[in-house]
Amino acid sequence: MTATQENSWELSVSTYIAAPPEKVWDIMTNRMEEYWCPKPWRTEIIEQQWYAGGRSAMVMKGPEGEEHRLEGTFLEVVPGVRFVTTDAVVRGTDGSLMPSAPFMLGIWEIAPEGDGTRYTARSRHWDEATAKQHDDMGFQQGWGTCAEQLKELAEG
């Protein structure tokens, strides 16, 4: 999807998964380390507090020692349907919520479709420049690969 002001500078990927929503949701939330970033990169979960206001923290690790830390907050968690995170709010050292330089809102959701599940991952940005930066970083390829890795796990 092309990011425009009308769609909140949103980029998205979607795929059909030939598995029931319950199985897809379980993998999405309990096996993130297996699909969350394109291989050969891997994800190390630091903490996932699955409730609105909870911490979402992980490190993506590259094959040559690169590290990209993702720190944020869950804005919404609807079990079996969607979770939403942002990097605009993080936890301070004392555990309190603190503002952070924002990049995006991430929305991951599933819905029943026929005998399987429609998976959609969306990224909303504050402005055109940030959406373009994310797109130029390889959003479609990267998030599309993660969707395919999730699909392989669920259908396997």
Q: Can you put this structure into words, describing what you see?
A:
The protein has 156 residues and is an alpha+beta fold. It has a single domain (5-155), classed as START domain (Alpha-D-Glucose-1,6-Bisphosphate, Chain A, domain 4, 2-Layer Sandwich), CATH 3.30.530.20. Helix content is 23%, strand content 40%. The chain is built from three helices and nine strands. It has helices at 21-30, 128-136, 139-155, and strands spanning 10-17, 42-48, 55-61, 67-78, 82-86, 89-91, 97-99, 105-113, 116-124. The chain has a seven-stranded antiparallel beta sheet with strand order 1-9-8-5-4-3-2, covered by helices on one side. The radius of gyration is 15 Å and the shape is globular. The two termini are 28 Å apart.
In DSSP terms (H or I, runs of 4 or more residues), the helix count works out at 3
Average per-residue pLDDT, rounded, comes to 92
CATH homologous superfamily placement: START domain
Following the backbone from N to C, one meets helices and strands in this order, namely EHEEEEEEEEHH
Largest sheet: 7 strands, antiparallel
Q: How many angstroms does the end-to-end distance come to?
A: 28 Å
Query: In total, how many domains does the architecture comprise?
Result: 1
Number of strands: 9
Rg = 15 Å
